[in-house]
Amino acid sequence: MTVKKILTEPDPLLRQVSTPVENVGEEERKLMDDMLETMYAAPGIGLAAIQIGIPKRIIVMDISRDENKKEPMYFINPIIKNKNLEKNKYEEGCLSVPNQFAEIERPNRCEVEYLDYDGKKKTLKADGLLATCIQHEMDHLEGILFIDYLSKLKKSMIIKKLSKSKLSRIVV
Ligand code: K2U
Ligand code: ZN
Q1: What share of the chain is helix, strand, coil (3-state, %, to 5)?
Q2: How many whole angstroms from its chain centre is CA 119?
Q3: What is the mean pLDDT of residues 17-21?
Q4: Fewer CB within 10 Å: C terminus or N terminus of the chain?
Q5: Residue 114 — φ and ψ, nearest 5°?
Q6: Residue whose CB lies within 8 A of the most ligand 1 atoms, among 9, 94, 132, for a mutation test
Q7: Higher pLDDT, 15 or 171
Q8: Where are the domains of the chain?
Q9: Each residue of 130-164: pLDDT tens digit?
Q10: DSSP-derived 3-state class of residue 32
Q11: Domain 12-171, CATH 3.30.429.10 — does that match?
Q12: Global confidence as pTM
């Protein structure tokens, strides 16, 4: 398993819409293994394939946040079937938007249909942090970042800050 570089905003690659996986084989499982290793190393609780530059509709997650009791989850071609009208607010961050956080409102429950690590069709009913994380990651598959929900001013200030820090890393 390999830790991959995580793309950071601003990067046009992050804004691509990811394409569905045709069939789940060894290549897709190796990709999910690398994504999970990259997510744990970040550390994070979710990662979409586009965040390591692969525009495939694949997400990995582990909301256990317990080093000794990892509970990885794999979502291939996920589709949200139902979303609650009731909303939850959560202080979100993103491994592709480093050191920026904002309170984002999302449906507090959702039902997801997907293929698992072995390509088997599954359905999951999620609430709380799991529901928030799934919706955050599903946004990545559409090229959407959590900062897109902020005001134009706040979003432009964050992008300006991230651009500067990216430039300073190149210049140094
Ligand atoms: O970059 C990502 O997509 C991983 C996200 C997943 C996430 C975002 C917002 C809310 C829940 C999950 C995070 O950066 S992972 C870091 C993290 C860890 C614990 C709680 C919230 C965020
Ligand atoms: Zn993210």
Answers
A1: 35, 25, 35
A2: 20
A3: 98
A4: C
A5: -160, 175
A6: 94
A7: 15
A8: 12-171
A9: 999 999 999 999 999 999 999 999 999 999 999 99
A10: helix
A11: no
A12: 0.95
